[in-house]
Design a protein that fits this description.
Length: 267
């Protein structure tokens, strides 16, 4: 017997809606073409495997390239972030064999590869984020919803999440990069940081061009105050420079130079 379902908005129930049984990744459009599409595609495949989803045979890189060409690029969207959600459908099959469907929407931006603006952040102490392997992907994150409201109520743009060991994990929307001298420290994925194709591409560029030494680190919250510059790399929203944490202010001169050089490499 099917359950009775009632909704004033005539919502068709699915497991993403009812159980948060979904994974989100982001694809990037810049100057009327997909960029980093292979990296984003392989991250999607890895995320689905971590959630033990049955990956359809049709989900090839070429499938997504054609899909986004027809539904995004051919619709005259030249710069944007594609929010792509895959979820298990309602089925009598066991979860591990359930069919997969998808939903996506495009958020237009001026240029993904530039620092959009400066933001103010602060530490959130009410809640922490986990540091196991599911924390590295965009699965259901109720802590993000709580923190987004918390940030708005406290006139912040983002927050610093700690993990259960009281070390820096990530922000609501992405990952932190802390510049001190010639060293950029990035919280390890084992600390609760997201896997980010956008940040990994940037870090690879910096390493190949000897623009900075990259260190994956375990960082207590106080270390954020030692940084000279702080960047937030968000696959979801773009790139932001942190201008203030509590009473300390930051510049973004050197990060801005690095981002400009990175951007030029896509010309």
């Amino acid at each position: 017997m099917k359950p009775i379902s009632v909704s004033p908005e005539n919502i068709s129930p699915n497991r993403a809606f009812l159980s948060g049984d979904a994974v989100k990744v982001f694809f990037f459009v810049r100057n009327s073409r997909l960029i980093m599409d292979e990296e984003c595609y392989f991250f999607l495949m890895a995320s689905m495997r971590k959630m033990r989803m049955q990956i359809p045979l049709s989900y090839t890189l070429e499938f997504f390239q054609k899909l986004f060409q027809e539904e995004v690029l051919n619709q005259n969207i030249s710069n944007g972030i594609i929010h792509f959600l895959v979820y298990r459908t309602m089925s009598e099959k066991p979860l591990e064999n359930a069919e997969i469907s998808y939903y996506f929407e495009v958020h237009e931006v001026v240029d993904l590869l530039e620092i959009r603006r400066s933001i103010e952040v602060d530490l959130i102490k009410d809640i922490s984020v986990n540091s196991h392997f599911l924390s590295t992907i965009r699965a259901h994150n109720p802590e993000n919803i709580y923190a987004e409201i918390y940030a708005r109520e406290n006139e912040l743009d983002d927050v610093i999440f700690l993990n259960p060991n009281k070390r820096i994990a990530r922000s609501i929307y992405g990952n932190f990069m802390f510049l001190e001298g010639d060293v950029i420290k990035i919280p390890k994925q084992s600390e609760g940081a997201y896997i980010s194709p956008l940040m990994e591409n940037f870090v690879t560029f910096l390493h190949k061009n000897s623009l900075a030494e990259i260190q994956e680190a375990e960082m207590i919250a106080f270390e954020s105050q030692k940084a000279e510059e702080i960047l937030v790399m968000s696959d979801e929203k773009g790139i932001f420079a942190v201008s203030q944490i509590r009473k300390k202010t930051f510049v973004s001169t050197r990060f801005a130079e690095m981002v400009e050089k990175w951007k030029a490499s896509f010309a």
